[in-house]
Specification:
The structure holds two protein chains of two kinds. By secondary structure, chain A is α+β, with helices and mostly antiparallel strands. In chain B, a hairpin with a 2-residue loop joins strand 6 and strand 7 (about 145-150). The chains are: A alpha+beta, B alpha+beta. The interface between A and B is medium-sized, with 30 and 24 residues.
Chain lengths: ~800, ~280
């Protein structure tokens, strides 16, 4: 019998169920964890980008008031560490990374020593009393400089500062270049960013009376943190409980293993007391992972009509001083695998070098590699349009992968497959919403009166929810691609769902409830979601790579289906009919075409627990756990359009309009989906116009050490974003979702750059690197004017 | 981070604050709105022995408008300067400038006295008080003195204030009928401070400039008055050509700061562009 759903929750723009506590100020973050007898850790950080540590004098700090323990790196040798990456591309050279530096520091901000004291003030006071003598060494900051001969070397086992070389090839680029009418080259910089979270990192480790250890940490990946902390500190994993309470943003930065994540658990056990550490904002800038930091050299071969025949890419990914958690995977698999974007480019040749420098380690940040990959494809095709003086939209249309070609493997790739999509459909919808033709005429008309407006277009696709597990082995990713969900029905028919995903603001309590409510057919108020506690949630991988609906949501869907399947067996027994005659509709089990009185879901749940009348072979209880391992990955796509005006006298870019049309598969909650697009677009606009980490190239000092220098956009800096969707369900999972979290930050950077370049086209400006700050735009106009007058 | 330990006294009168301050001027800091001081303490860039909270001193508060002029107490917050209707009636530039300072939270705490005494080269009020030809009232162990705003700022974060002196108030002459002021600011996207900001006041009589004053901030080591440009325009009409010449003169006579965000050339350009735009607005 086909089951039907009376109320469909998927697709409804429900308001977030979790918001009341946040709006009422009742969120509970790590800093709200205040335990009796809790001690405080403070860290002394390196003031040098590269130096030998000659001596560390802890004597004054040790006798300072309130101090319980002072340690330098040497005291930890052989006890905890090293910090090992979790994703290691085969063939990579992994530099040794101690938890606390022992004989050499390699970036400003690296841990050199630590203090545990009774109050935080005492801990900071004592940190100020530690004397360290350094022999300063030459530092290297820039990835292009780092691979040159004679550059300062960071690690003995990584000659030329290169840890990883990764190549992708399809077709024959050299032949394509020969056959092409034109070949042009461009060098683009993907600027280094700080993944700014409202809540900085924080951790409390607390020894429990039974000998176990509880660790409270703002983590996107609580179960992964449990494994990493257990393995690196030497604690049996089952005796470690990791609790991730409410989190004020993650964006990728809270899914890595940091020194403090290991120090607090170690010190709590040593001192037999809870130990807390939290990160100040300026500390965060120099100790939490950065994002992006690539230089790409691109060559594109194309015909007179705009058809691209081949693409060649050389990527240098700056990963900072050590290989952080996923660092060898970002500039490689995640970037150059996606370098052809939404376009059918059969001849592709790409190489990525992963480069260490004397900077903060670089790791995942919203999109991780896919923004860099899309930036390659998009800047290349925009350059083609500009070179041929063709319309930027028409050149894209000419090169798009066609709807009938899905599932599509770009350049014959074995690793990349786009499951579904309709780029033409997206484009048409976007152009109509934007009024492209009207705006294009407006731009042309206004240029005559000295008003410089421009339109930017960007298309993207990528893959979400890295899976299946067995495929991850090939790329050296030391984790699975599955997610787990346990649906536990109580005797009243209400559900508690234990999900291995981990919300950091995405709204999982709402979206996962919607998925479950459709299958279970119970009121959404009767569903609770539990995340972020390894003692409660059986297993999981957490939230990253836009995976939580496609993989986490599917696991909730499948486990809910198993609940209904079992409930149906029990109902059949209660109804005294054959199971196959039972239909489940609107929360009740009935036998269609008969006058047998239906039994409701709560009554079946009650029966499951009293167990008085269960059919043979059916065990009591109504509780199902699923480890869902997807067969493939969904590929979201989108077209974004921006309309800008550039003031040529000040270089200020005013964003007049922004339209996003995204295909993220089935929409579970359009309101939350639009919110994800808005947030991602803002971070993408931020990369394009505002944000950039700066280091002094000579001495490696971090120049954007605080939010006084590092420009995170405010409301006044971003436009009203108009978000629309096209739903092409993914065939790779039972709910048809693809993934949405990273879409905005992938599409917006090239979209914004193209809009500004379009506005500046009368000046003959063909290239600018992000961020397009007013001084930078103004300088480019000055240069173009000077050049033109020569 | 959190500050190093310090002693704290909340002064109840100006006299008490002066007494406390003179004991150890170099080891003491005055706390008004705290929006520069507290971050410096937290980062341990400043570690004073004693913090004197002057927030409760009545003599430092209030906006008074009299026949002769306007007195603004040092403790007046940016938000109060924004909100004051009588002040807005006299000098709308206060609301205009206040609205461009940071965000509402900062405006609710930060004070004009703190801004002036701190003398951040990119702060807003210095340009405004220079353009308004204000007098800064100061009190110290030897009593009161008064300094013209244009002479008050001496270098980056430096003023004529002695370590044992307190900025009490700002005195502004009542604007003459027909005098109009405007404030234009290009904000740094991170700090919200001025990359360059210009306060300009003009009075036109019979089509010619009868009175003019210009204050500039963000561009150089400290706020300054655009005297060359003012002298040039005095007695002339605000024609497009005269405006361009004055703006260029001001730009070319300024030795601009250069930093990671903006070059000296860019700042000089902003002086020219923003001065021109301000004067154009005042010409109509």
């Amino acid at each position: 019998m086909n089951d039907t759903t009376a109320i469909r929750h998927i697709g409804q723009p429900l308001r977030r169920r979790e918001d009341f506590k946040f709006l009422a100020g009742k969120g509970r973050y790590v800093d709200d964890v205040r335990l009796p007898g809790m001690l405080h850790m403070a860290v002394l950080r390196s003031p040098h980008a590269h130096a030998k540590i000659r001596s560390v004098d802890l004597s004054a700090a040790k006798v300072a008031p309130g101090v319980r323990l002072v340690l330098s790196g040497k005291a930890l040798v052989g006890k905890i560490g090293p910090i090992a990456p979790n994703w290691v591309i085969p063939g990579s050279k992994v530099p040794f990374r101690p938890v606390v530096a022992t004989d050499c520091v390699r970036f400003v901000g690296e841990c050199v020593a630590l203090v545990v004291a009774e109050t935080l003030a005492e801990a900071y006071d004592a940190v100020g009393m530690i004397e360290v003598e350094y022999d300063v060494l030459p530092a290297v900051i820039d990835e292009e400089v780092a691979i040159r001969e004679g550059a300062p070397q960071l690690h003995d086992n990584a000659p030329d500062n290169i840890t990883t070389i990764y190549k992708v090839r399809g077709g024959d680029y050299q032949n394509a270049a020969r056959e092409a009418d034109h070949v042009i080259g461009l060098r683009v910089v993907n600027n280094r960013l700080i993944p700014t979270c409202m809540e900085t990192r924080a951790i409390v480790a607390s020894p429990e009376p039974d000998g176990t250890l509880t660790v409270y940490i703002g983590s996107q990946v609580p179960h992964m943190h449990r494994r990493w902390i257990a393995e690196t500190v030497g604690i049996p994993e089952h005796q470690l409980r990791v609790v991730a309470p409410d989190i004020g943003g993650g964006f990728g930065a809270k899914m890595h293993l940091y020194p403090e994540d290991l120090l607090c658990p170690y010190l709590a056990r040593e001192l037999d007391a809870p130990v807390k550490w939290w990160e100040s904002r300026s500390e965060s800038h120099q100790s939490t992972s950065h994002g992006r930091a690539h230089t790409e050299n691109i060559e594109v071969a194309f015909r007179n009509d705009g058809k691209i025949l081949g693409l060649k890419v050389e990527t240098l990914g700056n990963v900072g001083a050590y290989l952080s958690n996923m660092a060898s995977g970002g500039p490689t698999v995640n970037t150059i695998n996606f370098g052809t974007g939404t376009y059918k480019i059969d001849n592709y040749e790409a190489i990525s070098r992963v480069v260490v420098t004397n900077t903060v380690p670089v790791d995942a940040y919203r999109g991780y590699g896919r923004p860099e990959g899309a930036y390659i494809a998009e800047r290349a095709i925009d350059a083609v349009a500009r070179y041929l003086k063709l319309d930027q939209v028409e050149v894209r249309r000419k090169n798009f992968v066609q709807p009938a070609e899905f599932p599509y493997r770009p350049y014959g790739s074995m690793g990349v497959m786009y499951d579904s999509g309709n780029y033409q459909g997206l484009l048409d919808k976007a152009l109509a919403a934007f009024d492209y033709d009207g705006r294009r005429s407006e731009c042309e008309a206004l240029r005559g009166s000295g008003i410089y407006r421009g339109i930017g277009v960007a298309a993207y696709t990528h893959m979400c929810g890295m899976a299946p597990s067995r495929r991850l082995a090939m790329s050296g990713f030391d984790r699975g691609g599955w997610e787990s969900a346990r649906v536990s029905i109580d005797s009243s028919g209400r559900a508690t769902i234990y999900s291995g995903s981990m919300s950091q603001g995405q709204g999982h309590i709402t979206s996962l409830s919607q998925i479950a409510a459709d299958v279970l057919q119970i009121p959404i108020e009767d569903i609770d979601i539990v995340q972020g506690d390894t003692r409660q949630v059986q297993a999981g991988h957490g939230t990253f790579n836009s995976r939580s609906m496609a993989v986490g949501g599917s696991s909730v869907h499948v486990s809910s289906q198993r609940i209904v399947a079992k409930a149906k067996k029990i109902a059949a027994g209660m109804l005294e009919v054959d199971e196959k005659d039972v239909s489940y509709s609107a929360g009740a089990f009935s036998v269609p075409g008969t006058d047998v009185a239906p039994v409701t879901f709560p009554k079946v749940a009650r029966m499951a627990y009293v167990g008085h009348k269960l059919p043979d072979g059916v065990a009591p209880g109504l509780d199902e756990t699923v480890f869902y391992d997807p067969t493939g990955m969904g590929a979201p796509s989108g077209i974004h359009l921006a309309y800008v005006e550039v003031d040529p006298e000040t270089g200020i870019v005013d964003i007049l309009d922004y339209v996003a049309v995204d295909d993220v598969g089935t929409l579970i909650n359009p309101r939350l989906a639009a919110g994800q697009i808005h947030g991602g677009v803002v971070q993408g606009i931020a990369q394009a116009l505002y944000e950039e980490v700066s280091y002094d190239p000579d001495n490696g000092q971090l120049l954007t050490g605080s939010l006084l220098d590092y420009a995170v956009p405010r409301a006044e800096h971003v436009p009203n974003i108009r978000s629309h969707f096209q739903e092409t369900p993914s065939p790779t999972n039972p709910i048809g979702v693809k993934g949405i979290g990273e879409s905005g930050s992938i599409a917006a950077p090239p979209c914004m750059v193209h809009a500004v370049l379009d506005a500046l086209s009368p000046f003959g400006i063909k290239h600018l690197d992000m961020p397009l700050t007013p001084p930078r735009v103004w300088a480019a106009i000055q240069q173009a004017r000077t050049g033109a007058s020569r | 981070m959190i500050p190093a330990a310090f002693d704290y006294v909340r002064a109840s009168s100006l006299a008490q604050a002066i007494d406390l301050l003179r004991d150890d001027p170099d080891g003491t800091k005055l706390l008004a709105g705290g929006h520069t001081l507290l971050p410096a303490l937290k980062l341990r860039l400043a570690s004073p022995e004693l913090l004197i909270d002057i927030g409760g001193i009545a003599e430092l508060k209030g906006i008074e408008i009299s026949e002769t002029g306007i007195r603004i107490g040092a403790l007046t917050t940016h938000a109060e300067l924004f909100a004051s209707e009588p002040l807005h009636g006299e000098l709308p530039i206060f609301r205009q400038a206040a609205s461009l300072i940071a965000d509402p939270q900062v405006r609710n705490r930060g004070t004009i006295g703190g801004s002036l005494a701190n003398a951040d080269p990119a702060a807003d009020w210095p340009a405004v008080v220079v353009a308004l030809q204000a007098e800064i009232e100061i009190v110290g162990p030897n009593g009161h003195r008064s300094v013209a705003a244009r002479d008050f700022f001496t270098d980056i974060f430096s003023t004529v204030l002695e370590p044992d002196e307190i900025l009490v108030s700002v005195h502004i002459p009542r604007p003459r009928t027909g005098m109009h002021f405007i404030y234009r600011k290009i904000r740094h996207p991170a700090s919200g401070f001025a990359v360059v900001a210009i306060a300009v006041g003009v009075r036109l009589q019979g089509g010619a400039v009868d009175q003019i004053s210009i204050g500039v901030t963000g561009a150089a080591n400290h706020a300054f008055t655009g005297q060359h440009a003012s002298d040039f325009l005095l007695g002339k009409t605000l024609s497009r050509d005269n405006i361009d010449k004055a703006a260029t003169l001001l730009s070319e006579t300024t030795e601009c700061l250069s930093d990671r965000y903006a070059s000296a050339e860019y700042r000089a350009n902003l002086i020219r562009v923003e001065t021109r735009r301000a004067l154009l607005a005042l010409s109509s």
